[in-house]
Amino acid sequence: MVRRRFSFGLVSRLSSPIYGRSPCSGGIWTPCLGQKRSFMTAKDLVESEEPEKKVTNRINMFSAINQALHTVLDSDPKSYVFGEDVGFGGVFRCTTALRDKFGRHRVFNTPLCEQAIVGFGIGLASMGNRAIAEIQFADYIFPALDQIVNEAAKYRYRSGNLFNCGGLTVRAPYGAVGHGGHYHSQSPEAFFCHVPGIKVVIPRSPSQAKGLLLASIRDPNPVVFFEPKWLYRLAVEEVPVDDYTLPLSSAEVMRKGSDITLVGWGAQLAIMEEACDEVSKLGISCELIDLRTLIPWDKELVEDSVNKTGRLLAPVTGGFGAEIAASITNSCFLRLQAPVSRVCGLDTPFPLVFEPFYMPTKNKIVDAIKASVNF
C-alpha cells in the first residue's frame, strides 16, 4: 500500500498518576497497591524552574524547538533524533542543520513506518539513551498506537521498575492549518490521555515549546509531545537563549479574572484570548488557563479558579474536555453557578473546504461565555 504525504506551502509561509500538581517537573509513574494510579517523585531529579530574566532572541516556534533539540544533542552524547526526513530538516524544518553538526549516526532518517519508529525508540530508550522520535504528522501516529499504549506506557510496570523506556519522547505536529483536511489537521491528543504511564504535553508559544520540550526529553517517563503546526512560523516571541525547562503537570494562569474560567491548550489559546478581549467590552472578566500538560493535568489550579469564578468553559479541539468537565463538576459542584460548557470541533471527520465551520472560533467561544455568565 502506498501512502502519500503532503507538504503544505502555506504552512511553511505562515508567519498511575495523581491528577494534580507534582512536586517537580519529573516523576516516575509507578503501580500502587490499593489505588488505580499513583505518582512517585524521582529523588535524583532536579526541579524544573521557570525561565529567569536572561538573554533572549526573538524567534518563532519551529526555531525554538530546533534550539531545544540542539541543546539536548549538544549536552547529552546519548541522545538521538530520528524520523521521516529529519535528516534534511523535516517538513516543518524543526531539525534543520542538526545532522550536519551532530552526524548521521545521531540524527537520521527512518523508513515510512510509524510503528517501527516508536518501536525503535522504545528499544533505544530502554538501553539508557534519550530517544527523540518524530512523527511527521500527528494524524499518522495511529499505526504506532500499539507501541505507545501497549509497550512504552507499560514498560516500567511490567518489570516492577527493573527496566523502563523513560528516555523516549515522541514529537508530532498536530492541529488545523486551514486546508489540511482529513489526514493533516487532526488533534489526536485525547486518545493518549486515557493511558497511565505516559505524559502528554502541548505548548502554546515558542518559549513554552523550548522549555516544555527540554523538560519532556529529560523526564523519566515516556512523553508524547504535540506541537501546534499552525504556530510553527506564526507565533514569534522572545525566547531565552540558554538551557531552561518549564515544569510538567503545572498549568499556567495566562489571564486573571473573576466571572468565568476558560481552560485550553496549544494553538486554541490564541483564539480564547481574543474571545476574552471581546467579552471584556461587555464587562465580563475571564480567567484563562493553559494546561500545558494534559496528563497528569493540574487539577488543583483549575479547581481553585473555578471555586473563585463559579463557571467553567473548556473550549478544546479534542475529547479531553470531558475529563475536565467531569472532574471539576465532581469537586466544585457546590460552587458552580452554571453547567460546565465545552466548545469543540464537530463530531465528523475533519473537513477540507468547510474547515472554518468545524473549528472552535472566537464567536463560538464568545457565545458560550455569554450563555454561561447569563445562565
Protein topology:
Layout: H1 9-13, E1 28-30, E2 38-40, E3 56-60, H2 61-75, E4 79-83, H3 98-102, E5 107-109, H4 114-126, E6 130-134, H5 145-152, H6 155-158, E7 168-174, H7 189-192, E8 199-201, H8 206-218, E9 223-228, E10 236-240, E11 252-255, E12 260-264, H9 268-280, E13 286-290, E14 293-295, H10 299-309, E15 312-314, H11 320-332, E16 341-342, H12 355-358, H13 362-373
Parallel strand pairs: 4-5, 4-6, 6-7, 7-9, 8-9, 12-13, 12-15, 15-16
Antiparallel strand pairs: 1-2, 3-10, 8-14, 11-13
Helix pairs in contact: 2-8, 4-5, 9-13, 10-11
Protein name: 3-methyl-2-oxobutanoate dehydrogenase (2-methylpropanoyl-transferring)
GO molecular function: branched-chain 2-oxo acid dehydrogenase activity
Cofactor: thiamine diphosphate
Describe, in short, the structure shown.
The chain has 375 residues and is an alpha/beta fold. It has helices spanning 9-13, 61-75, 98-102, 114-126, 145-152, 155-158, 189-192, 206-218, 268-280, 299-309, 320-332, 355-358, 362-373, and strands spanning 28-30, 38-40, 56-60, 79-83, 107-109, 130-134, 168-174, 199-201, 223-228, 236-240, 252-255, 260-264, 286-290, 293-295, 312-314, 341-342. The protein has a seven-stranded mixed beta sheet with strand order 5-4-6-7-9-8-14, sandwiched between helices. Strands 11-13-12-15-16 form a five-stranded mixed beta sheet, with helices on both faces.
